[in-house]
Amino acid sequence: MSTGIIPPLGLGTFRLKGEPLMGSIHKALDLGYRHIDTAQMYENEETVGAAVDAHGLPREEIFLTTKIWHDRLRHDDLLESLQQSVNRLRSDYVDLALIHWPSPNDEVPMEEYIGALVEAKQQGLAKHVGVSNFTVAQLEQARALPGGDQLITNQVEVHPFLTNRKVVEAIRKQGMTVTAYMPLAVGKVMEDATLKEIAARHDASPAQVVLAWLHQQEAVVIPSSTKEAHLKANLQALDLTLSDDDVRAIESLDRGERIADPDFSPRWD
């Protein structure tokens, strides 16, 4: 189920900084994007804020997401770091604040950081709150905590080579939105023969096929690009309709190929 709160296509900003990021945001907003995804760890919130400010669209028309890094999960740290993020973004609030990763080895009790996140929402620092990279068990634990029912999304890696089915189903079961990061598997989808074949049938690119596949599952997608042609193609992908056979062929590509797997990752499902 999709809550409909988060715009279905966002601009991912991981690994983008400076002028390339500025240009990417301006092009995206000109094309009609209204959702920008950043994080404390990306060290680019100031550039995102400057770009949004310079573009001149009313703040309330743009959906800004940021993520709190795992070294700022203690109650006071979390609230302070989110205030710093909001300041860097030249705003009074973010539309969505996420816990970027669950606390490694449960160093900080989940109750503490989910509680602080909900408090941030109550204080008006974030309109909505959620999590990222949570396993099925962690998601269930978070939802059972006081205020856990306010978590609207779990942002996780999903692409044809890692369909992450168990986690995706758990997110849906909780009535939450799936946000898919690295949807294009850092460009690997462009080389896949099956995806190329499906794309040719639809007069589309493999990237568009993958974004359409995720969109048909009501997942929010946040691909990143600095090229106007790609940004435009990503938007157009949302209008592409795949057949059941296409979907089955895409899902048969799953090989559990995880790209984001730092040493502090939880034990994956």
Explain what the structure shows.
The structure is a single chain. By secondary structure, this protein is of the alpha/beta class. It has ten helices and eight strands. The protein has helices at 18-31, 45-55, 75-88, 110-122, 136-144, 165-173, 193-201, 206-216, 228-237, 244-251, and strands at 11-12, 35-37, 63-68, 94-99, 126-132, 151-157, 177-181, 220-221. The chain has an eight-stranded parallel β-sheet. α2 links the parallel β2 and β3 (63-68). α7 (193-201) crosses α8. The two termini are 21 Å apart. The mean pLDDT is 97.
Classify the helix fraction into a percent range: 40-55%
Apparent shape = globular
Strand count, sense and closure of the main sheet? 8 strands, parallel
What CATH first level of the domain at 11-180 would be assigned?
Alpha Beta
Query: Which structural class best describes the helix and strand composition?
Result: alpha/beta
Q: Within the CATH hierarchy, at the fold level, what is the topology of the domain at 11-180?
A: TIM Barrel
Q: What would you give as the CATH superfamily of the domain at 11-180? A: NADP-dependent oxidoreductase domain
Radius of gyration: 18 Å
Q: Could you give the order of strands across the largest sheet?
A: 1-2-3-4-5-6-7-8
**Ends: how far apart?**
21 Å
Low-confidence stretches: none
- Please write the string of helix (H) and strand (E) elements: EHEHEHEHEHEHEHHEHH
- Please report which band the strand proportion falls in: under 5%, 5-15%, 15-25%, 25-35%, 35-45% or over 45%: 5-15%
Tell me, rounded to a whole number, the average pLDDT.
97
Q: How many runs of DSSP E, i.e. beta strands? A: 8
Question: What's the CATH architecture of the domain at 11-180?
Answer: Alpha-Beta Barrel
Task: Output the number of helix runs.
Answer: 10
